[in-house]
Structure formats: structure tokens, C-alpha cells
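Practice problem: predict the structure.
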Amino acid sequence: MYFNGTVLIGYLGSDTEQRESKSGAKCTVLSLATKRSWKNAEGKYESRTYWHRVAWNRLAEFAATLKKGMHVQLVGELRTRVYEKEYGNLRKFTVKQHMCEIALRSILKLERPL
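Answer:
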């Protein structure tokens, strides 16, 4: 059996923003904050916040209704891809960029209606 699944639960750090790609695909930019906390060697708590962005196509319309501060769950498949990016003006050089992304299958609001 094989399974590639990712679940992110966190809070939106800003209101969503609708965009359209060059190819015409709908896209909604959302900034989801997830947090990891741990106790260091000295016994003090430390934490790190991670930011996750963007919802495409069929989820873009629903994602556009979300607002800053909402508690949401994102479910999808983890994917990695590599692309090359060119830097420099006079001396140009190419850098291979590695990117992890989540192909979203669902977005769930975890808040209860008032």
C-alpha cells in the first residue's frame, strides 16, 4: 500500500487575494501559519512558525471566501519539483531551485459559525 498525504492545520495570517495566472488559471493566495514548539536543552520552550501559500483552480473560489484569523485545515498530496533560475546582470549564473508544494484536495474551515 502507498499513501502520499499531507494535513496542515493553522490560522490564516492575512485575507486571501484572488489572482489569475498567465495561462488563465484561477489562483487564490492564502497565507497559512503552522507552528512547531519544543523544549530546548536548557528546558526553555522555543517555537518556529512556518508559512504555506496558494490554492489553485477548483479550490480557489472557496479559498477566496476565507478571512484573516480563520482556523483552517488543508489536505493534499506532497510534491517536489526542481527548476532552474537565472541570476546576475553582468556575470549570469543559473541556480537549481528545489521546491516542495502541496497539491490541495480540500480546505476545511474549523471554526464554528456564530
